[in-house]
Amino acid sequence: MIPYNKPFIIGKELEYIRQAVESGKISGDGKFSKLCQSLLEKRFGYGKVLLTSSCTDALEMCGILLNISEDDEVIMPSFTFVSTANAFILRGAKIVFADIRPDTLNIDESKIEALITPKTKALVIVHYAGVSCNMEKISAITEKHSIALVEDAALAIDSYYKGKALGSFGQLSTLSFHETKNIIAGEGGALIINDPQYFERAEIIREKGTNRAKLFRGEINKYEWVDIGSSYLPSEIIAAFLYAQLENMDTVIKKRISLWNLYFQKLKPLQELSVITLPILSEGSTMNGQLFYLLCNNEKDRNNLLDFLNQQKIKAVFHYLPLHLSPFYINKHDGRSLPVTESTSGRLIRLPLFYEMKDDEQNYIISKIFDFFNINH
Length: 377
Ligand SMILES: *Cc1c(COP(=O)(O)O)cnc(C)c1O
What we know:
12 helices, PyrdxlP-dep_Trfase_major, transferase, Aspartate Aminotransferase, domain 1, WecE-like, alpha/beta, Aspartate Aminotransferase, domain 2, TDP-4-oxo-6-deoxy-D-glucose aminotransferase, pyridoxal phosphate, binds pyridoxal-5'-phosphate, single chain, three-stranded antiparallel sheet
């Protein structure tokens, strides 16, 4: 079986884990956490970065930092991972789902303003497949209506909009280092804080509601319970692994982009024959090779292609199921249909794409897709 994803070691991951253990401290916020955080801050121009145990954790921290409560509404796409919504549901918010654009599968910026009410507290956007949302229009909307902007940049590390790193637009943004993402730590994530008003409270929430970070810096001589919070920080073993990955980010992403480009070039003839649709880059956006998807013409074709590829020992997979139709939310949703989300999610397939993928594996996958459509190549 060619897997959909395969974790990899690219540099000093194991050596750094050993160093962390031998240093006598493997709980959170040691040397490797700080190295990861400052690398991300410097490279991408982020305000401040705090490592978390997952992107889910970082999103939950956003819900707390924005003081989201039962009276609030949060707008986000329905075509996203459950964590984007759960983080705000946990604070009691009502989620108002927006439809996506048919080209990039990102939130449709022209449909946001109609959803804003006096109760709207935040807009959460997702850069699908690492391709940017229309940040000019979106930033203008959140500024005009004074609502917070959160970027779920789980898929978007090292991708840019008009030269500015994704994750640097939101007051708060999040990254994921889950094993399926570009840069991995098994489970891991980061909260990016671009608005300084949240710096101090973010540290406290992440350390169980205490001001322990201030104690570590020698600013106080005992630490106390000062706010709500949880344990959102990863151990130094995770941070050590992650730091080695971050040091090799350029190599990983370059490889993934070249795999992505090869899929795109080789599958183009199928798009010209109108049997599939390939991804599109939005204006001003770069791409980071995070995932390669294609859209079939209908759900039946998609399911048949998935079955066929799985029979050929290729682990192709679908992606997000619309959250507004999920068993948990369908009765809480306001009943609006989201036609693009509903039609797209059932037609999408992601192809295997991982750092150690071999040319012959990729060529085999491409040839099987041509076989499925009975087209010679
Ligand atoms: C992967 C993903 C998450 C969750 O990331 P974890 O690190 O696994 O918590 C959240 N949002 C989006 C858009 C994702 O793709």
